[in-house]
Amino acid sequence: MKIAMIGTGYVGLVSGVCFAEFGFTVACVDKNPAIVKRLQAGEVTIFEPGLDELLARNARDGRLTFTTELAETVAEADVIFVAVGTPSRRGDGEADLQYIHAAADEIAAAMKPNAVVVIKSTVVVGTNADVRDRIAKARPGVPFSMVSNPEFLREGSAVEDFLRPDRVVVGVHDDAGAAAMKRVYRPLYLRETPMIVTTLENAEIIKYAANAFLAMKVTFINEVADLCEKSGGNVQDVARAIGMDNRIGSKFLHAGPGFGGSCFPKDTRAYAATGRKMNAPQTLIEQVVTVNEQRKRSMAERIVQAAKRSGAKSVAVLGIAFKPNTDDIRESPALDIVPALQSAGLAVRAHDPEARSAAEQVLTGVTWCKSAYDAIEGAGITVLLTEWNAYRSLNLKTVSQLMSGNILFDLRNVFNEQELEGSGLEYYSVGRPLSCGRSRVKSDP
Ligand code: NAD
Ligand code: UGA
Q: Are residues 217 and 152 in the same domain?
């Protein structure tokens, strides 16, 4: 079976490499020649743990190739996956389907009869049916199957998530499409991964509902954190206890500076927009979008107020990526918080283990530092924004000695009382009113 993967971003590249690992012949297509050139040279274009090794092995064994030639690749493929971007449309938050439509038109022109076209990108309900009509119109009389196969991988653990998913969801409209998906995912089936075979519409809604629910869970615990701060509670204790209820579950209950990334923000906006458009208001998710935006602003405001109070003139920001183990900065809280600090007249020194080159393109006026300690040196305030492992092992006494001031904002609740003991830091975390030793440990400035 020959697979074509259209789009070699975070999802397309990981999926293409993993399908090759399953033993299929995979040709990955991207319209960006610079990306393809690097991939052809064996260079991994995104930071994703474990991906480089799998890519090298499968390319070396001849199962995995990269090209810009969509038509000739599609013409030979039995199954064509579409993993192009579906960003937010400016203004109304709806998903911009232009890349899906452009890819569908190119696929329609080139596909062989009985090809299976699979949309892996996250697309709003009705898109697969529309794309099926679009292709059928372009190639009347040519049989093909349309499949919706949303992807649930997370950045930073994408390879592991792809190879060991909780479930695989496939929306189909004919038996041939379902059979092709069973073949493609057979290695996971052998590991007893559940496969949900459903309608195109259900598969589309499942994807958005899953992301919307998870984003809502994060937003919920962030508001619980606010209440803890005002009342003397500890959000980590509360999250742990409520998470023990199997009906709630312990995951996605880490309070922080608000969710970011290439998916939760755009997908919650698109889901809410779909609800409005279809006269089925998704009021909870509308609120999630608003509350999350406000949260990022309020985090910046906390830091600005602390700077005013303490006379700090500079801030060290640790972590720009929206989460650890990725170089992705799309809609990262840092992209709101850093400019807000700068607008308040604060100089920003920043460090991120992997996201610096992406961040340099969009954040101006920042002093980029080679290490966390380098960023911290001379700073009045230090802000931990992304919980990279490298930051967990910082020696807080050294941090305190290097800084010109002594305020540490830990917006990911990484540090504990023992680590802070004797550091002399004035410590603010999220939803945790701790007190420890001689350090002042607070949660609400
Ligand atoms: P991305 O922006 O990283 O990559 C998209 C790639 O598609 C780009 O390299 C672009 O050049 C290429 N492309 C666009 N049009 C093309 C065309 N006509 N022919 C060939 N290549 C083309 O996007 P991503 O983060 O991988 O997301 C892709 C989709 O998967 C989105 O719908 C997203 O919501 C969904 N998704 C993403 C993740 C994630 O963790 N990033 C997880 C699950 C689902
Ligand atoms: C998310 C989903 O988890 C994936 O299942 C989905 O496939 C993907 O979106 C997508 O559709 O693209 P991802 O964005 O890579 O994956 O990362 P997450 O781990 O979900 O984190 C998203 C954001 O929420 C991050 O900013 C993270 O810091 C934040 N978060 C997450 C919290 O603040 N607290 C938590 O407890 C969990």
A: no
pLDDT digits 0-9 by tens, 3-53? 999 999 999 999 999 999 999 999 999 999 999 999 999 999 999 999 999
**Is 263 assigned a catalytic role?**
yes
Domain total of the chain: 2
Boundary-marking domain end, from 133, 165, 193: 193
Do residues 86 and 158 both lie within one domain?
yes
Where is pLDDT greater, at 91 or 278? 278
pTM comes to 0.96
261 lines ligand 2 (CB under 6 A): yes
All residues at 6 or more sequence positions from 332 whose CB lies less than 8 Å from its CB, including other chains: 260, 261, 320, 321, 322, 355, 386
Q: Copy the structure tokens of residue 8.
A: 């070699």
Which of 5, 6, 11 is the best mutation target for the ligand 1 pocket, counting ligand atoms within 8 Å of the beta carbon and taking the most? 11
Does ligand 2 lie within 6 Å of residue 152's CB atom?
yes
The residue to which tokens 């949660």 are assigned? 443
Distance CA 346, CA 438 (A): 28
Catalytic residue (one of 18, 28, 228, 263): 263
- Domain extent at residue 156: 2-193
- φ and ψ of 49, to 5 deg: -50, 130
CATH of the domain at 160: 3.40.50.720
Nearest CA, atom 37, ligand 1 = 11
